[in-house]
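lol ok so funny story. i was supposed to be doing the assay writeup but got distracted and ended up predicting the structure for this chain instead. priorities right. anyway since i did it might as well share w the group, maybe its usefull for someone
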Amino acid sequence: MERKIILNQVVEYYHEKFENKKFTPGKDMVRYAGRVFDEKEMLNLIDSSLDFWLTEGRFAQEFSEKISEFLSVSNVMLTNSGSSSNLIAFSALTSKKLGDRRLLPGDEVISVAAGFPATVTPIIQNAMVPVFVDVDLKTYNIDIEMMKKAISPKTKCVFLAHTLGNPFNIAQVEELCEKHNLWLIEDNCDAFGSKYNGAYTGTFGHIATISFYPAHHITTGEGGAVITEDEELARIIRSFRDWGRDCYCNSGENNTCGKRFTQQFGTLPAGYDHKYVYSEIGYNLKMTDMQAAIGSAQMDKLEQFCSRRKENYNRYRKIFGKYSDFFMLAEATSNSDPAWFAFIVTLKNQAPFQRDELIGHFNANLIETRYLFAGNMTRQPFFEGVNYRLADNLQNTDYIMNNTFFLGTYPGLTIEMLDYIESVLDSFVAKYLK
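and the output, tada:
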């Protein structure tokens, strides 16, 4: 059967299976996130599967180039998840190739506890000490004044996420990193498409990471990327991603350097095959070409998706803004333009109801909500016995743990869904209005 016939049938299948789904209030779930796609993603996926090229191939190259062009960065390394991206981004800084700048066990790394564990677990897995700084209740990002006081002679790195797509104060964080000669890793997993001072987040740190999980700005199902402008770091990151090998040939290539059998490494025999020389303690964390095929089609929609997220966020502000006595609403960081991952809400002290009462009402009416991930990470079960340091107190982090939740802004939300959310909120709050 010709490929063209198969692909034409895929288009027909998409229109029959996925198109024109109608929303019925009170019957259909309003998700906080989900994949948004059309026949183009399915065509790419089937096209890739017909090649039966199961590792990185032509679509991986295409996807990488689109990300590189969008962000104007030189090096994009695709991975199997955003969490893997965080792991190898941080682990790369432990490479002996970095000399005196390499991170060592016992070094301190500035981060926050009000976030997702994958930003912090690589610090712990590499036997270093996370130093937790509180966040402010306007942007939900790191408290800069407390961060200044947190830096010690042992501090070597800053590893921060842009909370729910809202950039942290990059200018001040960069200034501190330059002053104290610290590495900066941007966890850009929730902020792909956000801007700060007119430039995209993910382009400021020494290294940045992206996630393509279905909840994020674009999706490949599972998947992620690590990006950097530094060529040496790019080589090291590729090594950690590709089993720790020293060779940099792409999949299916051999002897790119022209010295495959003529070099000396460690105490290996002279001329040992460079394809089997390992300079790092690495992993296999690559993306498949079928995932990249989906991602390539999704990249063509990224700007549109980001616009929809902003529109949905602004609609939520009108919905919740009616009840300013009860709710604190997030503020975009100064000089930023967030492509919001979600709409975050915190109950004020004087609110006559508890967060979980409202969440229970939403869930009973089939509206999904989420907490701000781990709340206070130091209170999570996995943190028992972990060596960490508090910069000061985590007062706001604890308040968030008890009083904050978020709703989705993803492009699959329709006007009808947002109208329904507003009516469900109104019915709940009406009981408490005087």
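The CA atoms of residues 23 and 416 lie 7 Å apart. The mean pLDDT is 96.
back to the writeup now i swear
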